[in-house]
Write a structure and sequence with these properties.
single chain; mainly alpha; globular
């Protein structure tokens, strides 16, 4: 059941990533920032593997927040997009290797 929730969270986060990318393409940076943040929140900590994952994306979130406060929403959205991409990739790697080891 927990695994299904994690996969649902991954799907939701992926949808936010795609929406944010569309919004960047339309130069709607404030909306893109919100979409990427929603994706990061939806994924939560399910991407982490405490035994092996070194996660430096938290520092990037601090930088994105600073850029957002400065009004540099294009830069903030680019940083948040990369954070979400990285976390989704970590999630996929973690869960693909877990599925492979179970077979």
């Amino acid at each position: 059941m927990i695994e299904h929730k994690a996969h649902a969270d991954y799907s939701e986060a992926t949808a936010h990533l795609e929406r944010g990318r569309d919004q960047v393409g339309e130069r709607q940076f404030a909306a893109a920032v919100a979409s990427f943040k929603n994706g990061i929140q939806a994924l939560g900590k399910s991407y982490l593997d405490p035994s092996s994952t070194l996660d430096d994306t938290g520092m990037k979130l601090v930088l994105a927040q600073a850029k957002e406060k400065e009004g540099k929403l294009d830069t903030a959205s680019a940083i948040l997009e990369r954070v979400l991409e990285t976390r989704l990739s970590l999630y996929a790697s973690r869960h693909m290797s877990a599925a492979t080891s179970e077979q």
